Amino acid sequence: MQPADLGFGSLFWSVPDAVILGDVRGGTVVPWNPGAEYLFGYRSSEFAGPRIELLIAQPYNRVIRQG
């Protein structure tokens, strides 16, 4: 999934660091950039939809759920 513009222009897709966008209300992953693909080993299109907690270490899941 590579939307034309997420409000970041081309920066989102070109930054070397992992960037993950998610639906705050649902806690699901929306798209992520190539840096996140490299870090997690999944293409953005393969992981879009699952809950963000699947990517975060267990002790930090509570922080993610609290928003």
Descriptive report:
There is one protein chain. The N and C termini lie far apart (25 Å). The chain has helices at 11-14, 34-40, 44-47, 58-66; strands spanning 20-23, 28-32. Strand 1 (20-23) and strand 2 (28-32) form a beta hairpin. 36% of the residues lie in helices and 13% in strands. The chain is α+β, with helices and mostly antiparallel strands. A two-stranded antiparallel ribbon has the order 1-2.
Salient structural properties:
alpha+beta, 2 strands, 36% helix, globular, single chain, Beta-Lactamase
Sequence stretches where pLDDT stays below 50 over 5 or more residues: none
Portion in helices: 25-40%
Briefly, what CATH class? Alpha Beta
- How is the biggest beta sheet arranged? 2 strands, antiparallel
Mean pLDDT: 74
Q: Gap between N and C termini, in Å?
A: 25 Å
Number of strands: 2
Can you tell me the number of structural domains?
1
Shape, per Cα inertia axes: globular
Instruction: Provide the gyration radius in Å.
Output: 12 Å
How would you concisely characterize the structure shown here?
The chain is an alpha+beta fold and 67 residues long.
Write the layout of secondary structure elements.
Layout (H helix, E strand, L loop, with lengths): L10 H4 L5 E4 L4 E5 L1 H7 L3 H4 L10 H9 L1
Antiparallel strand pairs: 1-2
